[in-house]
Amino acid sequence: MTDNKTTPVDEGRRRFLTASAAMAGVAVAPGVVLYEIAHGKPADEPASHAVRWGMLIDTNQCQEGCDECVKACGEENGFGHGTRETDSQWIRKVELRDMRTGRTKSLPVMCQHCAEPPCVDVCPTGASFKRPDGIVLVDRHICIGCRYCMMACPYKARSFVHERITDQNPDVPRGIGCVESCTMCVHRVDRDQQPACVEACARAGHGAILFGNLNDPNSEIAKRIAQYSTMELRADLKLNLGVRYQGF
């Protein structure tokens, strides 16, 4: 159920955002103000086009019933395990079944970090944006909660924050009335760390999620994609996804 109650502070914020919406797209420079958004790289170290971060998920290694990646995402980003209907969920496990053979595949689905993200195209304030290194983010300071991006996302990967949030991770600022989604743990990536879901999967002994630079032909992820058959979800949309799947 949506909480429609707002405080005077919320109303003031919305009036300000509405008035400044036309300026917001200019004020936001992807990769430059990220420090204020996710406490990643310092402001004088913008993300680079030379890198495109991505994930390769091996569905042969992803175990049915395992949700270590989901739990790690919630703990890292401060929204628990997503047990309530209104809880945010940045990553979810889904099961695919081949109707001909009955064979099933378990796999995680999150923001696919499209090269041509529909969420960015429809955002009226510029709050949804893509960094030069391919990570798609939401600047909650200028998100007005219109949810156009949620409707535009073909992967249902975005969540709306319905309730006030306490005990936040200061590296991952979140707020009521805003839309959010997987950030690839950009605050960790900018510190040369792996996303929390990748580390959790490895700790569980599965190693189903590989993270790396798609633009570097010598990276493990680029080598695997070059060597094995991989696929993109809804490849027919031609969005050039940053998340690929192997093992189908």
Structure overview:
With 248 residues, this protein is an alpha+beta fold. Helices cover 26% and strands 17% of the residues. The protein has 8 helices and 10 strands. It has a 4-stranded mixed beta sheet with strand order 8-1-10-9. The chain has a two-stranded antiparallel sheet with strand order 2-3. Strands 4-5 form a two-stranded antiparallel ribbon. Strand 2 and strand 3 form a beta hairpin. Helix 3 crosses helix 7. It is globular.
Largest sheet composition: 4 strands, mixed
Strand order of the largest sheet: 8-1-10-9
How much of the residues is beta strand, in percent?
Answer: 15-25%
- Coarse morphology: globular
Average pLDDT figure: 85
Total number of strands: 10
Q: Please compute the radius of gyration using only Cα atoms.
A: 18 Å
Task: Please report the number of helical segments.
Answer: 8
End-to-end Cα distance = 37 Å
Which residues form runs of ≥5 with pLDDT under 50?
A: 1-39
Order of helices and strands: HHEHEEHEEHEEHHEHEE
Oligomer: single chain
Question: Pairing-aware structural class of the strands and helices?
Answer: alpha+beta
Percent helix range: 25-40%
Topology:
Layout: H1 8-27, H2 34-38, E1 53-58, H3 68-77, E2 91-97, E3 104-110, H4 118-122, E4 128-130, E5 136-138, H5 148-152, E6 159-160, E7 179-180, H6 186-189, H7 196-203, E8 209-213, H8 220-227, E9 230-231, E10 243-246
Parallel strand pairs: 1-10
Antiparallel strand pairs: 1-8, 2-3, 4-5, 6-7, 9-10
Helix pairs in contact: 3-7
